[in-house]
Write a structure and sequence with these properties.
Blueprint lengths: L3 H8 L15 H10 L5 H5 L5 E4 L14 E15 L4 E9 L2 E8 L13 E10 L5 E5 L2 E5 L6 H7 L3 E4 L10 H14 L10 H7 L4 H9 L7 H5 L4 H27 L9 H10 L6 H15 L5 E6 L5 H14 L3 E5 L3 H16 L7 E4 L5 H12 L5 E4 L2 H4 L7 E7 L10 H4 L8 E6 L5 H7 L4 E5 L9 E7 L3 H13 L3 E5 L19 H7 L17 H4 L12 H10 L7 E4 L5 H12 L5 E4 L12 E6 L7 H8 L9 E7 L5 H12 L3 H18 L1 H4 L13 H16 L7 H17 L8
Parallel strand pairs: 4-6, 9-14, 9-15, 10-12, 10-13, 11-12, 13-14, 16-21, 17-19, 17-20, 18-19, 20-21
Antiparallel strand pairs: 1-8, 2-3, 2-5, 3-4, 5-6, 5-7
Helix pairs in contact: 5-7, 7-9, 9-27, 9-28, 10-12, 11-12, 13-22, 24-25
The structure holds adenosine-5'-diphosphate and magnesium ion.
Length: about 775
């Protein structure tokens, strides 16, 4: 019987998991377009929220609006004209309100030519600018929507005018407009009226004074009369708060469960006998700071416990993370286990290797330390692998090669890993141990100062130790900004410092000049990380994030046209010119590992005065005698990167300097970054600023940080709700047998499973 299926599907009330194809007004073709936007089910569509709202109940009169405001205006189409200027066609539309008028202008908009006719009602939204005639205002490239008139059906009128109207980002083409979404979502909400299941416990909602899910979704899409427009725009209505809380609650609940599951797994219970303590004490070259003692205490407590450690050690550049990690590794070795340290680059791996050798010379045990990096030749690799496999090497330091070379440890006890490796790597440690052995402990180190609440969520499945104190005797780094024309004075200053037996870094954004511009990368042995760190340069995103990407990662530099000074060119120029007679070295990511190592060692031993480099020296390089960091084209670097680079100096007792040389054009946002660098040296303050300028997604790099893409929440904006969600999630997980009805508990777990499978699949720590 043809037709039955159709009738049937209309009669059935859609559920949240109904494929979006069966939602009224969608169908197979549209559902494909929606799938491209990640909208697969009725629920996905309902959680696609308006990105702004227009008050069409009480539209603002034009004569109330001041130039400079961003406003929504409703008026009548008076006339339009397509102007052919020499550069491009301009489409100009006059929108009238009584005796006032607003001129709307779109560039290159020939397609608008036949769209309007006099008498239509239109809503436009954009920044209002003054115009030459005093009774007229102007809007450039506003968003617009033609409003229904008396000839349209009642439902359309109901959704579009005389109310606070939701505006959605287009979901594709010119079909899935705001209007289409309003209608489709409205119909869906109507069909589901009274049938939408709740996913949070009712008692919880009551206690927190949050609306149920259905009410929240209805009010967020179609705000009731009287809702504050400011609260709507700020995502602060009860409806918004409810949906944000929901999203964060399930994130936190999932993280809490992960931590619990980890606690149930079998790890190694290391012993800390007097002998072990003595072994640690004997190698310490200085008195640890209070923060270092505390962090080590926390780490050792975990190591003694029966479940595997998963801990994050967070500390600003120079806070002394390395020594804490070495001490933890000594605990493992003293217990007869092997320890591994994985660094993000060969330079750092080598530096750690040398530091470990120096440090452990003092140890009475004299453990065997090996270095394994991708650039070793095959024979050497095989040899090192053998030493590790037979347990003849106790301390293994390396790069990603440790995983790639399929190293199997004899008795792996502790892995220390740089944060850059965290994701996609932690699970693989299991491959590095022999079957039937307990899981090694893992310590992740990060120099990214993350505000504590964010750290707790982003690394929520890790426990957190913070080094919030610098070793004593450091003097603040003097940071100055200098225009490019004054570079000669800077070189003069550098010479004076060298005369005082100090050393200097000069950093450039690219390796080589014209025709071969290439932002620095040092992921040569980790193609995946390289792909992540350096996506194909994209067009700048809309809005204010455009100039903010750190250079190496995102700034598009057209080959040969960047006009940027490069490390290779400047090395030649400086060596022959301003630094003639000094020992000048060159370091960049395209040198092979041996060359890099030789240069770094010579710099460390003071055989090089001035090291011309790219950002390859960025993280972790430790040469206390270096007191000057000069960064050319400083406007091109991201804030985090500038801070990391500056952290390469000020590591000894002598006064240090960071000189930021800027090029000709400095964007407003670059100004802000540079000013912040001059103003403060506090990594947490800079991180907060960076975060607020870039948003969490860009700040952490969604993929790199394993940060889920939130549908509603914004970690920066919603920090308070995040803390609340965390508290409530822990409470829920800890009291599963509270007096909640079983059905409510069951639906929380069901929702959790689904949310984690679909949305947070990325957060995965083995
Ligand atoms: P980061 O946290 O950036 O990795 P490092 O571990 O490289 O910092 O330490 C920075 C410098 O401070 C190193 O030269 C290190 O030897 C020194 N250092 C670390 N802890 C102390 C301490 N407690 N007292 C004195 N110097 C220290
Ligand atoms: Mg370090």
């Amino acid at each position: 019987m043809p037709g039955v299926a159709g009738t049937f599907s209309i009669l059935i009330v859609p559920a949240l998991d109904t494929p979006v194809m069966y939602v009224r007004g969608v169908g197979p073709r549209v559902s494909e377009m929606l799938a491209a936007k990640g909208i697969l089910t009725a629920e996905d569509l309902l959680y696609h929220l308006p990105f702004r709202y227009e008050d069409r109940q009480n539209p603002r009169p034009l004569d109330e609006i001041q130039p400079g405001e961003v406003a929504s205006v409703i008026g009548e189409v008076r006339g339009s004209i397509l102007l052919r200027t020499r550069r491009m066609p301009l489409f100009e539309l006059t929108v009238g309100q009584g005796n006032r008028a607003l001129k709307c202008i779109w560039f290159n908009a020939t397609y608008l030519k036949d769209k309007f006719h006099a008498g239509q009602t239109i809503a436009v939204h954009g920044k209002v600018e003054p115009s030459r005639s005093s009774s007229t205002l102007k809007m450039i490239q506003p968003q617009f929507e033609l409003l229904p008139d008396a000839s349209d059906d009642a439902e359309t009128r109901l959704l579009e005018v005389g109310r606070i109207t939701p505006v959605y980002e287009s979901l594709g083409g010119n079909k899935l407009t705001s209007r289409w979404q309003r209608r489709t979502i409205y119909n869906l909400l109507e069909q589901m009226r009274g049938s939408m299941p709740e996913c949070l416990p009712c008692a919880l909602l009551e206690r927190l004074n949050l609306p149920d899910r259905e009410t929240a979704l209805r009010n967020i899409h179609f705000p009731p009369e009287g809702t504050s427009l400011a609260e709507l725009q700020g995502a602060a209505t009860a409806a918004h708060r409810r949906l944000i809380f929901e999203e964060l609650f399930f994130l936190e609940l999932g993280l809490e469960l992960k931590r619990r599951r980890m606690r149930e797994r079998l790890g190694i219970s290391f012993a800390t006998t007097d002998k072990v303590r003595e072994a640690i004490r004997e190698v310490l070259p200085f008195h640890p700071t209070t923060a270092q003692k505390r962090a080590l205490g926390e780490i050792v407590t975990d190591m003694r416990g029966p479940s595997p450690m998963r801990r994050l050690l967070q500390g600003d550049v120079g806070s002394g993370k390395t020594i804490v990690a070495f001490q933890a590794m000594l605990v493992a070795m003293e217990n007869g286990y092997q320890a591994a340290l994985m660094a993000p680059t060969e330079i750092l791996a080598t530096q750690h290797f040398l530091a470990a050798r120096k440090l452990l010379e003092r140890s009475s045990r004299k453990p065997r330390i090996v270095l394994l990096t991708g650039s070793l030749d095959d024979d050497r690799k095989r040899h090192v692998r053998g030493l590790i496999n037979r347990g003849e090497a106790q301390l293994v330091i390396g790069t990603h090669a440790l995983i790639e070379e399929k190293v199997e440890f004899d008795r792996l006890g502790l892995v220390v890993v740089d944060e850059q490796h965290r994701f996609g790597v932690l699970q693989r440690f299991k491959l590095m141990k022999k079957p039937n052995q307990p899981e090694p402990d893992v310590l992740v180190m990060t120099a990214t100062p993350i505000p504590r609440t964010l750290a707790l969520s982003l690394y929520g499945d890790l426990d957190l130790s913070v080094l919030d104190e610098l070793p004593p005797g450091r003097t603040p780094i003097v940071t100055r900004r200098v225009a490019g024309e004054k570079a000669d004075e800077v070189w003069g200053f550098v010479r004076k410092q060298i005369a005082l037996k100090r050393q200097a870094y000069i950093v450039y954004p690219v390796i080589e000049g014209t025709g071969d511009d290439q932002p620095e990368l040092d992921f040569s042995h980790d193609p995946e990380a390289a792909a992540e760190a350096a996506p194909v340069p994209k067009l700048p995103r809309k809005g204010k994030t455009a100039n903010l990407f750190p250079l190496a990662a995102q700034e598009a530099i057209p080959a040969g046209k960047s006009g940027l000074k490069s490390a290779v060119d400047m090395y030649e120029k400086l060596r022959k010119g301003p630094f003639a007679g000094l020992k000048v070295g060159l370091l960049h990511g395209r040198l092979d590992a041996d060359e890099k190592e030789i240069i770094m060692r010579r710099f460390q031993r003071g055989e090089i005065d001035v090291l011309v480099s790219t950002t390859v020296i960025e993280v972790g390089v430790d040469v206390p005698n270096a007191t000057v960091m000069v960064i050319e084209h400083a406007e091109r670097f991201g804030l985090a990167q500038l801070h990391q680079l500056r952290g390469r100096v000020g590591r000894g007792a002598a006064k240090s300097y960071c000189i930021l040389i800027t090029g000709a054009r400095v964007s407003e946002l670059a100004e802000e970054r540079l000013n912040a660098m001059v103003r403060t040296q506090d990594g947490f303050e800079l991180a907060e600023l960076d975060l607020s300028m870039r948003g969490p997604g860009e700040f952490f790099g969604t993929r790199q940080a394993g940060l889920p893409d939130f549908r509603v929440a914004n970690l920066l904006r919603d920090r308070k709700l995040l803390e609340l969600a965390k508290r409530e999630a822990t409470r829920f997980a800890n009291h599963p047998d509270s007096d909640l009805p079983e059905t409510e508990k069951a639906r929380v777990w069901a929702r959790l499973k689904e949310a984690w499978q679909r949305r947070y699949g990325l957060v995965e720590a083995g």
